[in-house]
Structures are given as structure tokens and as C-alpha cells.
Amino acid sequence: MEGPDTAHGIRPFARRFENAAAKLSDSDRGFRHAPGTGESTRPPSARSSRRTGEDSGGGSDGGAPLPRSGSADPYPKIELHVHLEGTIRPEKLLDMARRNGVTLPADNVEALSALYRYRDFDHFLEMWRATTGTMRTGDDFRRAVLDYALEAKAHGVQYIETTFSPINRNKWDGIPYPAMFDGVTDGITAAAEHYGVTVRAMPSLIWGVDRELAEECAQWAVRYRDRGIVGLDAGGNELARGDVSEFDRAVAIARDGGLGIVPHAGEAGGVRAIRDVLRWNPDGLQHGIAAAGDPALMAELVDRGTVLRVTPTSNVATRVVADIAEHPLPRLREAGVRCSIGTDDPALFGTTLGQEYELAERLGISPASAYRAGVDGSLCDDAVRQRLREVGDTAFGAPTG
Ligand SMILES: [Zn+2]
């Protein structure tokens, strides 16, 4: 077995997944990851651990152990990195397929669940396509928001910032932009009303699409700013990303319209992928973990106050990190880079928000630190942020410094 290519446990994807990356760029530019081939990608199991209370950005955690995830009263959490399309559990996906007359690669929960535990690149690609291609109506997007809000609430979530990818659904499936944006934003309203969970959302540009498509997407996002759309993301295959300046105008449209900018960078693509997007002065980074290999870049992120949106299980499942024990979270923490914790694609990676917080805690990111980084790194308005701070102070104690 090949070992990690750096002391930080980050494997450059380029060599191992050259073929997969090429295949992605040709066949499905909406696909966001280039996962490993031929090996088990089962996510690491979560284990309980004592809270360390150690963190670089959160202050005091208070004294008594917090309730564990899955208990009746889990500690509060913030999630800033989750793709709406990746939240849909097998039973919900089957329901959606029946409603929309879409044929999935399996017709029962057991068989579909087995496919979600994908073992190689093709399985993962198949499931990503099956999931995203099954969403056909605005109501599918609304239900997905609502269902995930309920699921995450069971893990103590107070606030979710979800990404969704409308460009290819519009271009390939002809779903009108208003249907998708209405669906997502109606879901936001319903999640607050029914479950008391605050959700905000942002569409994601896809690396490599024509700049006109990116700009159109950004314009739609701005139109929905008053309904819970708070930012603009960009993602896809980092290894076939091309020149990010192609999206400069789309980013400017979003900025001028009052939206934040939080691109994916530094997942599979290394340090360069992060430096490239700093031209946009981003409000945060999805992943960003490749910075752990570059002390100067980490220092710059600290200076900028950039909060990373880190997803431990996803990083192992896609083989960006060789093993959870080698995850760069401790290095980021030691350098003072603030990290919030998310699931990325909880259904596709077989994880939950509770599990991700527990994994992060094992890696030295305390629940309080993850929560406070989430509050400070979110794109929410001041009133929501203040409420979230109060929830955090009640649960974890007021910050000491
Ligand atoms: Zn992501």
C-alpha cells in the first residue's frame, strides 16, 4: 500500500486518480469528488472519547461532560458544510424516485443502502447521479431541506448552511431555476416553522462550466437573498478546475448582491487550489484542509480569520486523507486555523453530524470550538448570530478569551 505523500497525511489525488478525474471531467462536471478506486471507502466508525477541552479558538468548554450525540439531549451544533443532494437517505430517495417515475439502480432500501456503501469510484458516481437525477421538482428540494433539518435536529443542530447544485439540474434536466430556489427557500421557511431549525442555503457553481452559466446562477442566488440564500459556493473536480478567474464576474455579481463567497478549495487539489481562490477574498472555505501542508498559508488564513468547513469522514472516504488518524485537523488547530465541522454528504458517506463532531473531538477539536467556529464562520445575519452565541454560551459556558 502506498503511504501518505506528505507528513500531513494528505494524498495528492492526481497520480492515484488520474483516470477517474479524467472520466469525471468528461462525463459529469457536476460531480464533486474523485473518490478512490477499488478499496473500501467505508467511513471510520465514531468512538466516544473524553472531551479534551483543548482548542485554539473557542475558549472555555465548561466542566461536566456534554451529552453524547444521539442521546435525548445532544449538545448544540452548527453545520456549515453539507450538500443538499447528499443528505437524502435511501428510503427517501426511493420515495422520490416513485413520485418522479425515475428508475434507480435498486428498488428497495436494503439494496440501495448497499449501494450507498460504495466500494469504488463507479459505484460512488452512480449514486451521485442517481441521487441528483432523482430530484425533479421544487418540492423535492423543499422536502430535502425539511428532512435534513429534522435529522440534524436529532443531533442538536441549531443552524445549517447547505449547498445545492442547480446548474446541471437546469441545464440537463430542464428544471427551472425558480422551482429549485423556491423549493429550497420554502424548505427553509418550513424547517424554522416545524422544527425550529434555522437553515440558510447557497447554490454552488461547478468548476469548468461556462462563465455565462455561472453568472446566471449567481443572478438567481441574488434574487433569493431575502428568502434565505446567503452565499455562493463553487465546487466540482478540483483536479480539472481550470482557471478560477472564469468565475470572477459571477463572484462579483454575488458580492454586489450582498452574498458571501465560500468556495470548495484544498480538498483534493492541494495548496494551490486554496491560493487560487483567495483572489475572491472568500468568507470561508469548504474543506481547505490542504493548508495544513503549508505553514505560511495557515498563518495567512489565521490573519484573514478564515473559518474552514471540515468534514472528517468525507476526507477519508474520498481518500484525500489516508486514515482518520492522519487527518490534518490537529495541525490546523495547532496553527490556530479555526475549523467548523460538517458532514459533506451524510447519506453518501454513511455518517451523521453527531458522528462528525465526535471524530473531530478525537482529533482535538472540542465541541465548543467547532460550535463557535461555526457561528463566527456562518453567513447568517447579526440577529441569528447573536442567538446562536447565546445558545453556545448556555451549553458550553461563556468564552474566556
Ligand atoms: Zn463539499
Give a verbal description of the structure.
This protein is 45% helix and 11% strand. By secondary structure, the protein is of the alpha/beta class. The strands form two sheets. The protein has a five-stranded parallel sheet with strand order 1-2-3-4-5, with helices on both faces. This is Adenosine deaminase.
Summarize the topology:
Blueprint (H helix, E strand, L loop, with lengths): L12 H4 L1 H10 L49 E7 L6 H11 L8 H8 L4 H14 L3 H16 L3 E8 L1 H8 L3 H19 L2 E9 L4 H13 L7 E5 L12 H9 L3 E2 L2 E2 L4 H8 L7 E3 L7 H10 L2 E4 L1 H6 L11 H6 L3 E4 L4 H4 L3 H10 L4 H11 L4 H15 L5
Parallel strand pairs: 1-2, 2-3, 3-4, 4-5, 6-7, 7-8, 8-9
Helix pairs in contact: 6-8, 9-10, 17-18
Zinc ion (ZN) binds next to strand 1.
Which labels suit this protein?
alpha/beta, disordered N terminus, 401 residues, binds zinc ion, globular
**Which ligands occur here?**
zinc ion
Rg, nearest Å: 19 Å
Shape: globular
Terminus-to-terminus distance:
45 Å
Q: Which structural category do the helix and sheet elements fall into?
A: alpha/beta
